[in-house]
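Researcher: We plan to redesign the surface later, but first we want a full-length starting point. Tokens attached.
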């Protein structure tokens, strides 16, 4: 299950559009620096044809599916908290396919 947690206005090639921000389930990850576990939830943005008001009404909506890690061409990413620049070769995307029987039954 993913949840709509926000919306943003963006523009590309002189055209404005809205995206919904989707958040996946919580994951426990071990810190590479300290070795201690912490919680994270991966987010993705998804282009939509909804106007501002309709986008805002979707916040809180749960959708079937998952946020998945997928391989991509390497790119540079700046970590907001530290300003450190890192090279990544993956991104996250929304997969609307139901991942578990529980999601299909209880959606």
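Model: Full-length starting sequence:
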């Amino acid at each position: 299950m993913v949840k709509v947690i926000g919306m943003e206005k963006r523009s590309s090639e002189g055209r404005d559009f809205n995206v919904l921000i989707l958040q996946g389930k919580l994951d426990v990850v071990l810190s590479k620096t300290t070795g201690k576990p912490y919680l994270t939830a991966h987010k993705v943005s998804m282009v939509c044809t909804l106007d501002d008001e309709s986008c805002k009404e979707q916040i809180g909506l749960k959708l079937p599916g998952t946020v998945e890690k997928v391989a991509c061409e390497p790119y540079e990413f700046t970590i907001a908290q530290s300003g450190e620049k890192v090279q990544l070769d993956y991104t996250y995307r929304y997969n609307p396919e139901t991942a578990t029987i529980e999601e299909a039954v209880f959606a």
